[in-house]
Amino acid sequence: MSGTPADRLSRREALRQGSAATLAAARALAPALFAGCSLGIPPRAKTVNVGLLHSQTGTMAMSATSLRDIELHAFEQINAAGGILGRQVVPRAPDPRSKVDLFPKRARQLIDDGSVAVFGCWTSAARKAVLPIFEEAKKLLLYSVQYEGNESSPYVVYGGMVPNQQILPALDWLASVAGGLRKKVFLVGSDFVFPRTANYIAKKYLATKEMRPVGEAYVPLGDRDFSGVVKEILASGADCVLSTVNGDSNIGLFAALAEAEVDPAKIPVMTTSIAEDELRFLMPEQVAGHYAAACYFQGVDTPANRMWVDGFRKEFGYDRVTGDPMEPDWCLVHLWKKAVEKAGSFETEAVRQAFRDGLEFAGPGGPVRLDPKTQHTSKFFRLGRIRTDQQFDIVHSSPEPIIADPYPALAFPGWSVDWTKNGITRGAEVDIDGDV
Amino acid sequence: MNLFDPKSWYWLYDVPPFRLSLLFVTAFVGFYWVGSIVVRPILRQFVKYTPGSNDIVGYVLSCFCVFYGLLLGLIAVTAYQNVAEAGANVTREASALSALYEDVSRYPQPYSQNLRWLLRDYTRYVIKYAWPLQQQGIVPEEGTIRIHAFHDQLLDFQPKTPSQEIIHAEALRELNELLAARQMRLFSVKASLPGSMWFVMIVGAILNIAICWLFDMRFLTQLMLGGILAAYLGIMMHLIFDMNQPFRGDVSISAEPFEALYKRIEEQ
Questions:
Q1: β-pairing, A269-271 with A240-244?
Q2: How far apart are CA A245 and CA A247, in angstroms?
Q3: Among residues A375, A381, A380, A383, which one has the least CA distance to residue A417?
Q4: A20 touches chain B (CB under 8 A)
Q5: A8 shares contact with chain B (CB less than 8 Å)
Q6: Has residue B70 got a pLDDT over 80?
Q7: Interface list for B 185-214 with A (CB within 8 A)
Q8: Is A173 helix (H, G, I), strand (E, B) or coil?
Q9: Is there a contact between B121 and A41 if contact means CB atoms under 8 Å apart?
Q10: Do B149 and A33 touch (CB under 8 A)?
Q11: Across B112-210, where does the E strand assignment appear?
Q12: What is the mean pLDDT of chain A?
């Protein structure tokens, strides 16, 4: 060591001074450099998981993927505005691949991963397959697609149309002067629960009108060979077709009709499962002139709708379209958000309790009200004629929203539901398959 | 918390870069200074009565620094190469995506519109959902679903003319390129230096510091000179830590190639 002991700082003194200086520096700098104990790590936002259960591959992907997108769009907007109850919503979207047996597995996976609610399913077969899982786990399924009715669960909120909001008004219109005074209806559908039940209700309704069913045919979901069905339609002498064909089977149906040179002016198809999104997959010249019954079309001419459509297209691309059931799905997300905020909790029972006051939401297609008795929503009925530019001319619109009746008395006598009181009141058992 | 598991330290990636750098320097200098007070007097006993002990310690330190410096340099290069390779894969994936988008634009309608739509959806997912997950060290899973949806649609198309056959074959080739690059990106999310390398680096740093404690010099000089060495070791460690995971930290890969592509296809 160099230097004399006199001019050297003693070890003790050096330690004392060094420690004091270090502590002083640390004390001065720490608050600025390492704010609190967080080291400046930005606080992680609290999150809540929500499941999106839609087929993104397989036969239903052409329809169901858009529901996933509109839900993502809704949750992105909600998150940007601060989330729900201060939590950012994390959407999880596994793919059930259009396979009914995969839906329960994916639903279970979502619930086990902590999803507080699940938005999903397209076909009734899928919905019925997951229903026991939601009822057992006491979690909410929010279902936005039109369906056949004849079902109620305290753990399902039905945002889509039921027959009294869609199929029956469509038949009324076909029988009217504007609809061409049609009398002979051919019923064609995919072979699963929705088309069969919907046609059962339609036949009961036709019996009360000056119309009659002249034939009925079902094709397995995903099948595209409709040449035999079209021959049956032509042979039956039908003057209109009510189609409950789902998914990409519609490609085959309209191709077969075009090949047989069926004129939409003479035998129009009234389809219940085609919206703007499905038209992207269909040849415009094959579908133009036919009709679709829905609660919403992109062409609804209101400022609220134009703003909604623009917002979606800005985010997902200007060649994207909106349609039914995207609009009901959007409304359902916001109705659920309102219920959660009203309940102050994501707990299913608290949210269900919040439904009891009859929530309302101003949707792009008009006001929507959730009926606490049935957990179904009121809907406008709209009828569109397909154009060659993959859009619809709205040719008819109901003057006001129609309240949903999941158990129309003409088809299910004695049946009703009221979740604010005693739930389902059962009437006589109905054998739908036996009727077919 | 297992201190020997590198993953236990990944929370450090969430610390802002300047503060993290300062944290590394503070930790190393603090360790050196505390050791100078607590450990140095004990270690000094071993060389106290050895004549020319500073020369011997200096010689040992020089030799050690050569080996340790080489090790640190090689590890830093390896870590950088990992980042660069992952970055190249991201660019390759975005390029394949771009080429594929152009190919499917030549398909007849409605295939063209639907396929482009699916590719745009995939790109959007990568930017909005996959990247934030990757930055947390989580492998994003839902992109696979979107690629499958595109693959299904692509295989649904049956070419009817020789030119369509050529375009279809080229689209399938680009899709394979995209799939390979995507897989590499997903592998890179969890890629990092093995724990044994971190062990060797940290033990080397401790020994480096311990050798400095053996020097016989004025206490303040010891604190100053050793502190400078420890500070630089801290900076080096921070650099390697930063490059350890390609999608995390300050030196990480951004989604910029995908963002540029998305902007371009949106403008189209």
A1: parallel
A2: 7
A3: A375
A4: no
A5: yes
A6: yes
A7: none
A8: helix
A9: no
A10: no
A11: none
A12: 90
